[in-house]
Write a structure and sequence with these properties.
- With 152 residues, this protein is α+β, with helices and mostly antiparallel strands.
- It is 17% helix and 38% strand.
- The strands form two sheets. Strands 1, 4, 5, 6, 7 and 9 form a six-stranded mixed beta sheet that branches. A three-stranded antiparallel beta sheet has the order 3-2-8, with no helix packed on it.
- The N and C termini lie far apart (36 Å).
Length: 152
């Protein structure tokens, strides 16, 4: 196995307009976390032409182009993960806020929920890094300016 190969899987930590809840979607048909709630996002593809384009493509694929969000694209909180098949992944997590529009899930997910932050620790089933990652990406808002947000 080539130890220099890994997947770059961008995650969007999407907060509602007042920042009181985070969007989680229940995965469907996945080997590692089937039936578990997670953030939206996915692997950067070589044809994306950049990180922002990859975030936009994943957002459009997973919750639809009608959903408008603003993402802080120049700061991320990173996680390292090894899948059950041994594939290594780097997962940058980006802070985003929901602007508006309709959320239309693709077939990778069975449902979504806006989970109130006060209830996040008790909400299940979710990937074990969800709550600590929400806390970590919220710190991005302390240093980000409005100019750092990109609507996608």
């Amino acid at each position: 196995m080539d130890t220099t190969l890994f997947q770059y899987c961008q995650k969007i930590v999407l907060f509602n307009q007042d920042g009181s809840a985070v969007l989680l979607a229940r995965r469907r048909g996945e080997a590692d976390y089937d039936g578990v709630f997670s953030f939206i996002g996915g692997k950067l593809e070589s044809t994306d032409g950049g990180l922002v384009n990859g975030l936009r493509r994943e957002k459009n694929e997973e919750i639809g182009s009608a959903a408008k969000i603003a993402v802080v694209t120049n700061i991320s909180v990173n996680e390292y993960f090894v899948k059950t098949n041994g594939q290594a992944m780097v997962l940058p997590h980006y802070y985003a806020r929901f602007i508006g529009g309709e959320i239309m899930l693709n077939d990778e997910y069975s449902e979504y929920r806006w989970v109130n932050l006060r209830e996040l620790d008790r909400f299940e089933p979710k990937i074990e890094t969800v709550a600590p990652m929400v806390e970590a990406v919220q710190k991005i808002t302390r240093v980000a300016t409005e100019a750092d947000y990109r609507e996608i």
